[in-house]
Amino acid sequence: LIEAIDLVKIYRMGEVTIPALRGVSLSVEMGEFLAVMGPSGSGKSTFMNILGCLDKPTSGSYRLDGQKVEELSRDQLAQIRNRKIGFVFQTFNLLPRTSALENVELPLLYNGSSTRERQAKALKNLHEVGLAGREHHQPNQLSGGEQQRVAIARALINDPSLILADEPTGNLDSGTSMEIMAIFQRLNREAGITIILVTHEAEIASYARRIIHFRVGLVIKDDRVAKA
Amino acid sequence: LIEAIDLVKIYRMGEVTIPALRGVSLSVEMGEFLAVMGPSGSGKSTFMNILGCLDKPTSGSYRLDGQKVEELSRDQLAQIRNRKIGFVFQTFNLLPRTSALENVELPLLYNGSSTRERQAKALKNLHEVGLAGREHHQPNQLSGGEQQRVAIARALINDPSLILADEPTGNLDSGTSMEIMAIFQRLNREAGITIILVTHEAEIASYARRIIHFRVGLVIKDDRVAKA
Ligand SMILES: Nc1ncnc2c1ncn2[C@@H]1O[C@H](COP(=O)(O)OP(=O)(O)OP(=O)(O)O)[C@@H](O)[C@H]1O
Ligand SMILES: Nc1ncnc2c1ncn2[C@@H]1O[C@H](COP(=O)(O)OP(=O)(O)OP(=O)(O)O)[C@@H](O)[C@H]1O
Ligand SMILES: [Mg+2]
Ligand SMILES: [Mg+2]
Hints:
2 copies of one chain form a homodimer.
Chain A: E1 2-13, E2 16-28, E3 33-37, H1 44-51, E4 59-64, E5 67-68, H2 74-84, E6 85-88, H3 100-105, H4 115-128, H5 144-156, E7 162-166, H6 174-191, E8 194-198, H7 202-205, E9 210-215, E10 218-224
Helix pairs in contact in A: 4-5
C-alpha cells in the first residue's frame, strides 16, 4: 500500500536549513498496524504529512496504492485524501466557529451523500467515541480530550482504507485511550484498515504489530512485534 | 496560598446545562507540588481556569494569597495573572503569526523591562526547554512538542509564584518530559514555587507530593504522597 523511498524534507527559513527528514524509507502492506515513536522534533509529523499527501518531500519517492504521488495533480491528491485517508492531526485542526457535528460531517460534503445520511453517520461516530450529547458544542466549548475525539470521529467518517493518527491519545486519560485504541484495533482486524499512529506512550504502541523508531530525521529501528 | 470553597461551574447552552464543576473545595499551601488527574471531561481544565483567574465560578469562593478573587476588578485580575501566575494551556494558545521568541516575551511587555532584558530572558528560557535555534520559528513551523515547550517557556518568563500547567507533557516523548519535569521540580525545591499540574500519566504525577483525583466535576480523592 505504501512504498516510501529515501524521503528527504528540508525546510528553508532564509539562511537556515532544517533537515526534518534525512532519507526515510518505509514499506507498508495493506492491513498492517504500525506505531511510530521518537523524540520531539525527530520528524514524525513531517513524515505523516507526506504519507497523507498533505505535503511533498524535497526529494525521494512515495507510492500510495501503486501510484506515484509526486506525479499527481492537486485535484487528484485532494481526491485521494478525501476517499482513502483519514487523518487525525496532532493539534486537532477543528474549525473554530463550527459545532462538533459539523466538523465531523465536513469530509462527507464532497462525496455526494444526502444531508440526512451525513448527519446520521456523524452522530454515530460521535457516539462511538463517547461524545453523545456534545454534538452541538463548538471546539472552545469542549475539553481537550473531547476536541481530540472529535478529530478522531472526523478522520473515520469517510470509511478510509488508511488511517494516519498523530498522537491520537495525547490528551486522553488511560480509560478513554483504551476505548479509542479498541476502535482502531477493531477497524484493523475486522475491516482490514491500515493504521499508522504516532505515539510517545509505550502502552499505546503495544497495540501495534510493528514499531518504527525515529531519531533526528531518520528511521533507526523497525521492530516487528509477535502478537497473539 | 489557595483557598477554594465549593466551586460550582455550570455552562448553559440554550436549554442544556452542563455542570462542569459540582462543588470543588481545595486548600493549597505555598510551595506545594500537586498533580491533578481524572477522566476526560471531568472538570480539570475548568478548575484550572478558575484557579488561574481566567474564569469565574457560577458559585463558591476562591481566595488567592488571602484575596477574594470574586471581589477583584478586571484590571486587578489581569495584574495578578501577569505577576503571580504562569499558565501552560492544554492547547498551547500561542499567537500564530508570531515567532517563538516573541510569544515567550509577550508577558514581559507589561512589566516595564527593557527590550534587551526581555529578549535575553526569553532566549534563556527557550534554551532551557531545549529550543535553542528555534526562536524565530512561528508555531506552524514547530513540531507539536516544540509548540508545547514554547508555551512552557512563556509561562515561566515572569518568574511566577504559582505555576498552573494543564497537560504540559501531553505532546512530549519520555526523554523531553523528564527534562521539563526536572525544571518544575527545581523551581519548586529551590525557588519555593507552587506547582499544580494536570496530567493523565502516572509517571508524571509521581513527581508531585499530592495527587488530586477528579470525576464528573467533583474531587473524589486527595492523596498525600510520602516523598524522599
Ligand atoms: N465553554 C463551554 N461550554 C459548554 N460546555 C463546556 C465548556 N467548556 C467545557 N465544557 C464542558 O465541561 C466539561 C468539563 O470540561 P473540562 O475542560 O474542564 O474537562 P477536562 O477534565 O479538562 O477534560 P480533558 O481531560 O479532556 O482535557 C466537559 O464535558 C466539556 O464538554
Ligand atoms: N514549516 C516548518 N518550517 C521550519 N521548520 C519546521 C517546519 N515544520 C517542522 N519544522 C521542524 O522540523 C523538525 C521536525 O518536525 P516534526 O513536526 O516532524 O517533529 P515531530 O517528530 O512530529 O515532533 P513532536 O513529537 O514534537 O510532535 C522540528 O525540529 C521542527 O522545528
Ligand atoms: Mg509531531
Ligand atoms: Mg482539560
